[in-house]
């Protein structure tokens, strides 16, 4: 488990990056939402994925876990395609993506994180339960284990989702807006979690909205707005100029071309 | 349920009743007719299967697709009837069901395809498929009815349901289908739960989401087809939705929901069948659905946590708890006003008495309400009623009162300082909010507000017991 606990090891060129994306283009209904994105995230990075609404941040994460069809491009995680490293990757979707009125307890939801390592027909065992409770303890919601999920606050829902990812004991974590609309104490708990994961040598990529805190939380930044603006260590990349490129002005030309392509599909 | 099937035949007492309705009901209930027994067995196990499957469809938010499938079955039934060349009175059920399954399956697939590939929204896709297929079916049915020599009388049973036509062979079809649904439910419990809650995660983990959805859909098609005869294609959707929706009122766990729904489905079908067997002219489909809806109504009213009666009772209890807290706080405040708050925990046995009218005035309560609340608090051992219309806090009551005041004032300060609430509103807002305080909030409040220099805030008497509302 902790064989890869390497903080200060210089980047070994023979070891593939945690995430490498090459020439990725993705379209919904033929309208491109990501243009020709190429980037590399080194192992052990705590990376913020930043950009305005509709910049394709969530889409990029979904593409990494093979959830959206791509038009072109190649994605490698730890040097291999997603199919081969499923269990080393934990994806935390936006919490609105599920129905919180579902008849399940917090523990039930967290246990779902372990389903990936179970085969068909196999049931969760005591060991999985123990790990799920451990994950809940890390998120400081162990006392909610048997609570019905419809009774959770937004912050508690987010903690439940993060616990579900933790229980997978992955090497790469992809989190889609974990900080969205959570209370201050949950935000603090998530930050502590991120720091702890990084100190264990895990790679974490977080879709983030708040520019104020971005520089503080992340040591690596990916700036995205339909295309890649910049990706690299926060100190080098998180500059005024880059941010202006990311947020300043709509990329009208790309938008128009995208629109034209969409119309083209409807025409024929 | 099995024991009901072997009741001694011909219960003399019941059979001698005079009213024909009563006699018919008695005949049905005592299962005197072989036919009734067959029909009952068939509908009962059909209800089980529908109940189970309905839970998945409801939780996967695909409940209405069953409606499209059942309506889409009609053209298949009629076409099979026409093609089979069997124009006599005898129907060949196998052929008809095969036709129904094929066109029903096509209907269901069309809904999904319209959504997936043509970008048509769910409700529109359902509406289109349902009406187009049903329309085609009705047209075909008219043609079949006007063909010379054809006797498609049985076909109308597929629309409204005619359980009395169920034969032992049909029961076998239904039984096998139910066995398959049961086995799938037990075997794929984990996979289907994941699919229903979070299909994205299921896909991430590498489960074949399309295949699992297809399995569910295939089971819906088969159950709908074998159920067509008993309930009819218009109403079978109710059996797929209503028991599951009713079951949700009784539990917060998916496993239990499955079995409750299955039980309700089976029960609704049996009762509905018996009713329809005893009351002439009520089609079995309608009787079954109305019975199921009665169950839903009862669940909606009485279900724990979600039922309206339960929620109303909880509100009453909550109001009472609020009032009791307010009562205790009023006592503490009155002690403060007369400077008789005990300074130490060991003084708690000498708390000064307080007149009830003073409490009533403090809270603007009527004398009756005040006295009634006082009695309740006395029963809980928090105060003692004394002669002369006075009450005195017991040591436990004193601690509870101090805690209520502390919570209230911490909240007031919080609202004033942090939320910038207007002074005039603070007391009222805190009045309400203090009842929602959980231990974790209190810890946060005490941490945020330095209480050392605030003599007006009673110190925390002792650690709050950690409580969890669930237990």
Short key terms for the protein model shown above:
heterodimer, A: 268 residues, alpha/beta, 6-stranded mixed sheet, 3-stranded antiparallel sheet, 10 helices, 36% helix, globular, B: 471 residues, mainly alpha, 21 helices, 3 strands, elongated, disordered N terminus, disordered C terminus
Please tally the β strands of chain A and state the result: 9
Largest sheet data of chain B: 3 strands, antiparallel
Q: Give the overall average pLDDT of chain A.
A: 85
Q: Which sequence of strands runs across the widest sheet of chain B? A: 1-3-2
First and last CA, distance of chain B = 34 Å
Describe this structure in words.
The complex is a heterodimer of chains A (268) and B (471). Chain A has 268 residues and is an alpha/beta fold. In chain A, 36% of the residues lie in helices and 23% in strands. Chain A has a six-stranded mixed sheet with strand order 5-6-7-3-8-9, sandwiched between helices. The N terminus of chain A is likely disordered. With 471 residues, chain B is an all-alpha fold. In chain B, helix 13 packs across helix 14. The radius of gyration of chain B is 32 Å and the shape is elongated. Chains A and B meet through helix 3 of A and helix 10 and helix 11 of B.
Outline of the structure:
Chain A is of the alpha/beta class and 268 residues long.
């Amino acid at each position: 488990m902790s064989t890869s606990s390497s903080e200060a090891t210089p980047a070994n060129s023979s070891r593939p990056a945690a995430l490498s994306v090459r020439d990725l283009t993705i379209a919904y209904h033929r309208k491109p939402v990501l243009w020709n994105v190429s980037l590399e995230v080194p192992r052990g990075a705590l990376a913020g994925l930043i950009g305005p609404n509709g910049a394709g941040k969530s889409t990029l994460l979904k593409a990494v876990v093979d959830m959206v069809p791509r038009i072109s491009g190649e994605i490698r995680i730890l040097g291999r395609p997603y199919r081969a490293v499923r269990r080393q990757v934990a994806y935390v979707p936006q919490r609105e993506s599920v129905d919180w009125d579902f008849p399940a307890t917090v523990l039930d939801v967290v246990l779902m994180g372990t389903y990936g390592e179970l085969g068909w027909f196999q049931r969760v065992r005591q060991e999985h339960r123990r790990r799920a409770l451990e994950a809940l303890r890390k998120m400081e919601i162990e006392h909610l284990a048997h609570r019905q999920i419809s009774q959770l606050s937004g912050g508690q829902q987010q903690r439940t989702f993060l616990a579900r990812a933790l229980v997978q004991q992955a090497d790469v974590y992809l989190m889609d807006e974990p900080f969205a609309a959570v209370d201050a104490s949950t935000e603090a708990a998530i930050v502590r979690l991120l720091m702890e994961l990084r100190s264990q040598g895990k790679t974490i990529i977080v879709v983030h909205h708040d520019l104020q805190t971005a520089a503080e939380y992340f040591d690596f930044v990916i700036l995205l707005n339909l295309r890649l603006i910049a990706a690299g260590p926060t100190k080098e990349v998180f500059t005024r100029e880059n941010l202006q490129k990311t947020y300043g002005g709509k990329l009208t030309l790309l938008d128009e071309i995208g629109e034209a392509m969409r119309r083209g599909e409807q025409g024929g | 349920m099995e024991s009901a099937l072997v009741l001694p035949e011909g219960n003399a007492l019941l059979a001698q009743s005079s009213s024909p309705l009563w006699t018919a009901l008695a005949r049905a209930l005592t299962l005197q007719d072989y036919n009734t027994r067959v029909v009952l067995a068939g509908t009962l196990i059909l209800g089980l299967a529908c109940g189970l499957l309905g839970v998945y469809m409801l939780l996967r938010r695909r409940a209405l697709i069953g409606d499209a499938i059942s309506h889409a079955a009609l053209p298949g039934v009629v076409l099979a009837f026409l093609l089979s060349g069997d124009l006599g009175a005898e129907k060949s059920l196998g052929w008809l069901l095969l036709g129904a399954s094929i066109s029903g399956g096509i209907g269901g697939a069309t809904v999904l395809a319209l959504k997936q590939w043509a970008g048509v929204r769910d409700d529109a896709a359902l509406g289109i498929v349902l009406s187009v297929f049903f329309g085609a079916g009705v047209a075909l049915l008219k043609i079949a009815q006007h063909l010379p020599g054809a006797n498609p009388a049985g076909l109308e049973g597929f629309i409204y349901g005619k359980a009395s036509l169920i034969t032992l062979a049909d029961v076998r079809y239904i039984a096998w289908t139910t066995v398959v649904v049961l086995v799938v439910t037990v075997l794929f419990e984990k996979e289907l739960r994941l699919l229903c809650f979070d299909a994205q995660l299921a896909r991430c983990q590498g489960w074949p989401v399309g295949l699992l959805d297809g399995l569910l859909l295939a089971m819906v098609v088969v159950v709908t087809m074998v159920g067509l005869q008993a309930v009819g294609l218009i109403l079978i959707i109710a059996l797929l939705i209503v028991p599951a929706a009713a079951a949700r009122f009784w539990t917060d766990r998916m496993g239990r929901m499955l079995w409750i729904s299955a039980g309700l489905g089976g029960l609704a079908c049996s009762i509905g069948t018996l009713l329809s067997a005893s009351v002439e002219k009520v089609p079995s489909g309608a009787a079954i659905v109305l019975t199921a809806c009665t169950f839903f109504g009862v669940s909606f009213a009485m279900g724990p946590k979600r039922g309206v009666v339960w929620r109303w009772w909880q509100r009453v209890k909550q109001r009472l708890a609020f009032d009791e807290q307010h009562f205790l706080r009023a006592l503490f405040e009155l002690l403060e006003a007369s400077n008789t708050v005990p300074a130490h925990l060991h003084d708690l046995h000498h708390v000064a008495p307080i007149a009830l009218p003073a409490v009533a005035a403090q809270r603007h309560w009527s004398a009756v309400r005040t006295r009634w609340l006082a009695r309740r608090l006395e029963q809980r051992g928090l105060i003692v009623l004394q002669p002369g219309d006075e009450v005195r806090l017991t040591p436990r009551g004193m601690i509870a009162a101090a805690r209520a005041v502390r919570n209230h004032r911490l909240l007031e300060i919080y609202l004033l300082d942090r939320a910038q609430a207007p002074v005039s509103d603070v007391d009222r807002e805190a009045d309400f909010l203090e009842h929602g305080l959980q231990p974790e909030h209190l810890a946060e409040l005490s941490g945020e507000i330095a209480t050392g220099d605030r003599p007006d805030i009673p110190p925390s008497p002792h650690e709050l017991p950690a409580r969890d509302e669930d237990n």
